[in-house]
Amino acid sequence: MTDETIEKPVLEPTGALSVETVLSVKHWNEHLFSFRITRPASFRFRSGEFIMIGLKGDNGKPLLRAYSIASPAWDEEIEFLSIKVQDGPLTSKLQKIEPGDQIYLGRKPTGTLVTDALLPGKRLFMLSTGTGLAPFLSLPRDPDVYEFYEQVVVVHSVRRVSDLAFRDEMEGKWSEDPLVSEQAPTQFHYVPTVTREPFDGHTARIDKLVESGALFEGIPGAAKFDPETDRIMMCGSMEMIKQFGAYFEEQGFTEGSNAAPGQFVIERAFVG
Fold first, then answer.
1. What GO molecular function terms would the record report (predicted)?
2. H or E segment at 115?
């Protein structure tokens, strides 16, 4: 038995947590990775929701954090997207996981980045920065989303080109996903922007793309946000969410929730 094997404790399920197995890990760059784990047969969630996941802490108790689920509700596995924080209580350990390792998974997913929290509309815009992309990897792969909206748009702002996780899949309009491969080619739009490196696409922050109208290029409809037809989801930096939350309210949009659907939503659990 190697030292590495000894260091990986056996996890025990609890009433609130199941124990799952890591199936695969992909490191996009030195500070961004994604991983897939087993999905319990009884685990149900809505595309866009988040769940608690974690590992055993130094005190022997579960060390948990909320993570948006990056896989769609129909997937037989569960995928997550994470940053690497070298001194982070959880991510310092999580970034070292390998296939076969065990991980805690909560039993009760929840969240407001779901279609249930929005009123009907024609265009769905998902605005994200960094790993805020995660729930917006789930939603565009859910066939119900294409029934609810004529146009489905993912906007992803990052600092470096290597931060554009899942770029190939989105540029390919989810061609490998059997449940949306017919709708996505005409209804899905991917708008990446890189702010601190040369890039062959957009290089401005999301607010500047909105101001110039560049964000709407190639997307049917007006070159501006319209509360009558457009629905918005936001996930990412506090700065972006606060800025656009105020902007949308000024434009006549109302914030929605599971109890009272509106015209835009943010994930309150992540912004406090």
1. ferredoxin-NADP+ reductase activity; nucleotide binding
2. none
DSSP letters, 5-30, are HHHSPPP---SSEEEEEEEEEEEEET
Torsion-angle region of 78 (φ positive above 0: left; ψ -120 to 50: alpha; else: beta): beta
**Whether the predicted model's global pTM rises above the 0.85 cut:** yes
| DSSP structural state of residue 130 | G
Handedness of CA 271, 231, 240, 180 (dihedral sign): positive
What's the chain's length in residues?
272
Cβ neighbours of 238 (radius 10 Å): 11
Q: Is 263 helix (H, G, I), strand (E, B) or coil?
A: coil
Q: Which domains does the chain have, with CATH numbers?
A: 17-106 (2.40.30.10), 115-268 (3.40.50.80)
Helices (H), the chain: 3-7, 91-94, 135-138, 143-148, 167-171, 184-187, 206-212, 238-250, 268-271
For the beta carbon of residue 118, count every other beta carbon within 10 angstroms.
Answer: 22
Instruction: Say if CB 243 and CB 137 are below 8 A apart.
Output: no
Residue 166 Rama label (left phi>0; alpha psi -120 to 50; beta): left
Task: Give the HSE-up count for residue 108: Cα atoms under 13 Å, Cβ half-sphere.
Answer: 3
User: What type of residue sits at position 202?
Assistant: H
- 38-93 per-position pLDDT tens digit: 999 999 999 999 999 999 998 989 999 999 999 999 999 999 999 999 888 999 99
Asked if pLDDT for residue 232 goes beyond 60, the answer is yes
Give CA–CA dist 219/151, Å, rounded: 8
